[in-house]
């Protein structure tokens, strides 16, 4: 299988750096920041930005330590003989702890991290051999000072860890003495509890004997009470069945009375409807009487006119007299018919009123009796 440098084929350094987010949750912020950066198109540029951010956070050694522990995951990206897969990888990660001393402030935005970094030629700034020697000496002094600062920082960290360990040891010794005292107290409590347990067992035996005797006595009493309860229960069942039968009969009677009451109410509604129809018929007859009276008045007016014409005319006096007589006869007949109709309407109205009053009284008396009967049944 074809390989590329110390990484597997078709893999980049950005792949293992992405795994750090899963192994170390605090690295998710760096990964999100790198993905949000504009202008980064290649995985190599993302890897360079990630390394710069890790240096500024002073956690590069921690992130890579989490990554190098999971060698089964690194096998997907590195050859088995790669540096990260060997023991030297752990040594390199341990040396990276020294970078935490440096306060890095690196530019990430606006940098061309995708392209290859070029080599800076400083030969144009060199003047002579003495300057070269002084510069080398300054570089050595700077390296020595950096090493001194690094050693002092490590010494400070070690002193802080030693002091914290001393404090932990003191707290552990104090807690140990407390635990020993508590253990002695617990042993004394256990001895006391064992003695109390022995006394309680002896008392429990005595209580058990007394309770057995008391149970035998109560068993006899319970059997006697059970017999009396059975006899009383039988009498109560008979009384309950009789009361239930009476309740069923009374409920049936109440249902019949309610049905009769509903029939009486329906009859009352029918009587009221008949009364309304009779009143309507009476009103119609009164209207016909009014029309007949109007016709009578018209006939009377015609009769008066004819009478006046008869007085004025001499030639048709006899014919007009006959016509007048006929008209008078007709008027008399009409008046007699009107009187008969009025008399018959009055008689019919009085009869309907008496019938309606009698029916209403009967219905009210029946409803009162039924209400009293229902009330007595409910009581």
Would you give an account of this structure?
Helix content is 80%, strand content 0%. The protein is an all-alpha fold and 379 residues long. Helix 1 (14-23) crosses helix 4. The chain starts with 13 loop residues before the first helix and ends with a helix. 6% of the residues are buried. The model is unreliable at 1-10 (pLDDT under 50).
Task: Write the SSE topology.
Blueprint: H1 14-23, H2 28-36, H3 43-57, H4 60-69, H5 71-74, H6 88-95, H7 129-312, H8 317-378
Helix pairs in contact: 1-4, 2-3, 4-6, 7-8
Oligomer: single chain
Please state the overall shape, judged from the principal axes of the Cα atoms.
elongated
Rg over CA atoms:
64 Å
What proportion of the residues form beta strands (DSSP E)? under 5%
Structural class category:
mainly alpha
Helical content band: over 70%
| SSE pattern | HHHHHHHH
Profile the largest sheet: none
Features:
mainly alpha; 8 helices; 379 residues; disordered N terminus
Quick rundown:
This is RUN and FYVE domain containing 2. Keywords: Coiled coil. The protein has 379 residues and is mainly α.
């Amino acid at each position: 299988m074809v390989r590329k440098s110390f990484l597997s084929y078709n893999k980049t350094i950005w792949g293992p750096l992405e795994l750090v987010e899963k192994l170390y949750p605090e690295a998710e912020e760096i990964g999100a920041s790198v993905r949000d950066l504009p202008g980064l198109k290649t995985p190599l540029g993302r890897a360079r930005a990630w390394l710069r951010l890790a240096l500024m956070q002073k956690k590069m050694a921690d992130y890579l330590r989490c990554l190098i522990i999971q060698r089964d995951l690194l096998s997907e990206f590195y050859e088995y003989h790669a540096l990260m897969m060997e023991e030297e990888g752990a040594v390199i990660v341990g040396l990276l702890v020294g970078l935490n001393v440096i306060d890095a402030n690196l530019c990430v935005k606006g940098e061309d991290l995708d392209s290859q970094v070029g080599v800076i030629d400083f030969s144009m700034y060199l003047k002579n051999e003495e300057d070269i020697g002084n510069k080398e000496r300054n570089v050595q002094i700077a390296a020595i000072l950096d090493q001194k600062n690094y050693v002092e920082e490590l010494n400070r960290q070690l002193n802080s860890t030693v002091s914290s360990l001393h404090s932990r040891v003191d707290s552990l010794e104090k807690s140990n003495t407390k635990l020993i005292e508590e253990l002695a107290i617990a042993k004394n409590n256990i001895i006391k509890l064992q003695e109390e347990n022995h006394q309680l067992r002896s008392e429990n035996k005595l209580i058990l004997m007394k309770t057995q005797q008391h149970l035998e006595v109560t068993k006899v009493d319970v059997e006697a009470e059970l017999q009396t309860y059975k006899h009383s229960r039988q009498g109560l069942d008979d009384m309950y069945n009789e009361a239930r039968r009476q309740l069923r009969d009374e409920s049936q009677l109440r249902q019949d009375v309610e049905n009769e009451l509903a029939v009486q109410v329906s009859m009352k509604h029918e009587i009221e409807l008949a009364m309304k129809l009779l009143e309507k018929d009476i009103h119609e007859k009164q209207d016909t009487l009014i029309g007949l009276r109007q016709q009578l008045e018209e006939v009377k007016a015609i009769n008066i006119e004819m009478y006046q014409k008869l007085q004025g005319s001499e030639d048709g006096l006899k014919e007009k007299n006959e016509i007048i007589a006929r008209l008078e006869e007709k008027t008399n007949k009409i008046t007699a018919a009107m009187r008969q109709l009025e008399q018959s309407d009055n008689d019919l109205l009085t009869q309907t009123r008496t019938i309606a009053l009698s029916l209403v009284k009967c219905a009210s008396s029946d409803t009162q009796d039924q209400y009293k009967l229902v009330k007595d049944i409910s009581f």
